[in-house]
Specification:
The complex is a heterodimer. Chain A is built from four helices and no strands. Chain A is elongated, with a radius of gyration of 17 Å. In chain A, helix 3 runs antiparallel to helix 4. Chain A is an all-alpha fold. By secondary structure, chain B is mainly alpha-helical. Chain B has 29 helices and two strands. Chain B has a two-stranded antiparallel sheet with strand order 1-2. In chain B, strand 1 and strand 2 form a beta hairpin. In chain B, helix 5 packs antiparallel against helix 6, helix 13 runs antiparallel to helix 14 and helix 17 runs antiparallel to helix 18. Chain B is elongated, with a radius of gyration of 38 Å.
Chain lengths: ~100, ~775
Amino acid sequence: MDFFNTIGLNHYLVISAILFGLGLFAIVTRKNAIVVLMGVELILNAANINLLAFSKYNGGMEGVMFGLFVIVLAAAEAAIALAIVINIYKTFNTVDVSSIDSLKE
Amino acid sequence: MHNLIQLSIIVLLLPLLSFVLLIFFNRRLPRNGDFLAVGMLGATFAISAWIFWNVIVVGYDPAFKLTWNFNWIDFGNVPGVGPLTIKMGILIDNLTAIMLTMVSLISLLVHIYSTGYMAGDKYYGRYFAYLGIFTFSMLGIVLSDSLFSIYIFWELVGLSSYLLIGFFFEKDSAADAQKKAFLTNRVGDIGMLLGILILYSQFHTFGYDEIYEHIKAGDFHMSQAWLTAAGILLFMGCVGKSAQFPLHVWLPDAMEGPTPVSALIHAATMVAAGVYFVARIFVILTVDALHVIAFIGAITAFMAATIAITQHDIKRVLAYSTVSQLGYMVLGLGVGAYSAALFHLLTHAFFKACLFLGSGAIIHAMHHEQDMRWMGGLSKKMPWTFVTFTLATLALAGLPLTSGFMSKDAILAGALGFAEVEGGGIYYLIPILGFFSAMLTAFYMGRQIWLVFFGESRTHLKPAGGHDDHHEHDEHGHHEVHEVPWAMRMPLVVLAALSVFAVYSPDPLDGAKGWFMHLVQTPETVVTAGMVSENASAHSVSEMQHETVMEESAADLHMNEVVADENVTEAVHSEIDGSDHSAAATHANAEEHAVTHNAEHDKLHGDEHHGPVFDDPRQAAIAHATHENHDPAIMYSSFMVALGIGLALIVYAFGFIDPEKTAQRIRPLYLYSYNKWYWDEIYDATFIKGSLFLSKLLAWFDSNIVDGIVNGLGALVRRLGTASGNFDHYVVDGLVNFTAFFVQTSGAAMKKIQTGKVQTYLVMVLVAVTGYIVYYFFQLMP
């Protein structure tokens, strides 16, 4: 079984897909806005893994550079998202995303 | 323009001005403006008298004639008709001048009288305004020079008589009477219009003179029967206006008007208009038309006289007497006694106006009591009225020394002459009816005088309650009866004075010696074509005549006259027999003779009778026979009048015969007369019921058939409307509503998936992306 003997590109991609799936699952199912944010982080990192993996097997530095960008973006996003969550809490007195449905109106 | 024409236009317009001023401003003027009306009429009369003076007294020329006209409307060249212009104008001849003066004088007297009679009436000013327009219309008729303008004024007279007869319009009877008068007149006017149109269709002109010339020139291209028809149709206008049988029914009812109006309408103006009109068209009347006219006149005279003897209402007696006298005039025209008929028109106008105004004075004094049964003994209380009324009555009855005697006699002589010329037989009915009516006239007027003025006052005999339909302050007959004021007495005196023979002729037995018969002479007929049948009768007559002339010529005082007639007779002979005499030469001789005769006549100024000389053999024969019959006519009529008055005295003055018992004995006849020959009932049963039935029929047709069609169409349209509405409601609206409903329901369904929760959206995106990927991979699979 070649798949288990040598670690190749597919392994990275599988890990990345699992991570993406977990992240998505967290975003869809969790009620707490913080946990939803954590799911987002997972998805971002799944994408990072993909970028780096393709970069390694393609032999260029573009993937690494994109990875760095995504990390920076994630940090910025986390900061903004947390600020939003704080404002949501101030407005609705809760961070339960299932009860925040004022978009409906 | 001749200054007489100018004056006559002023005469015509003054009463109109009076009408216009009074109808608009009578309430703002002092005394409601009666002084204005009287003043205007005074001016009218003064100018008329000036015209009379110039034409009659100064001129004294039988052939005087003055015309003036202008184009009133010019229609240009009308397709199918030719050049069409309508002219208006004025014609003044002796007859016009006399009529003008007569009408304006009587109108003036009526105006003056009315200031007394109508004093205190609610519509006093309006009354004088109506009198003004009436006088205007009548003067218009007199001055007209064409059939067109006379028709206009004819209708105006109809209108103003309608206004005046119904002056007390608050009374139902007056309102009915005015309608009756107007409608009855319309019947005659339709005939007149048709007659005018027949003549117009032939000659394309309305002017009298043009029409006469055309007919004389033989331009009438249809058969003689059409000319007869035109004459009779034109005469129908006279039948309506002059209340001839069978359209006489309106006149007695028209007594509902104020009494001075009765005097104006029924004595001087409106009824005279009909006779005047027939006189104007006299020359175009064919022999057949003249016969019809003569018989209508005779029947009218007799019928009305028989009715008058049983009436109780003082005005009704006079009304029927008027109808009867108009019958005389029409009879006179029909038999060719043209100047006699017009003479009677003039004399009758004065004495009948006097009688009406006198009866008005009596009614006024008796506090609106009109029934002669409750009068009596007024001669001492009202001496002025008594004397004038009696004088006029004598004139009406035709006693010698009065005007009525002369004129009635001339007509009766004409009727005798006519019957003789026409060959006797049925034509003698006309003079016989005439003489009989003369007797009846004397009888009913004697009865009236006696009932009103003599005996004891019978006011207390009047049954209480009874018929209080006259006036509001009616029920008391026990007021003091008093003579009327001077405003009402003066006209009576003037009119009574005009009923004396001396005004008209120096010889009380012969009106033909007077100025009237000299100035208004029978005109020559213009109908000559197709007279062949007449020649035969003229022949036999002239033969007979010739002999008479020969016998009498030596003894006859009127030498010239006889010679003139003989010449004519010879002219007739020569025409028919074709003897050696040259007809033209003889005729010229006759004319020459007539001219010299005229000259002599002017010198003698009415001392001698002479008639015009006729070319037409029939007219010449009648003129001669009339002259022959003058003395017998005087004899017969005096006898009949004496008989009538004697009978009246026997019955009412001496009481030898009790009128009540006699009436009971001949009850059917009495009722026949009292109920006016049942003409009203007959008309009611035929024309009125008939037209009501026709109206009902038409109303039924209208409400069932016409309305049915309309309603059916309506219903149909309504059905269509409902159907279209339903289509709109269900189909069109349904589509729109369904669209809305669909959008609404689908929106309601769709809105459920919009939860507002981020996670749901994310799941949807996930599902969609997953679905897409699955789809994509299925696509890739072979």
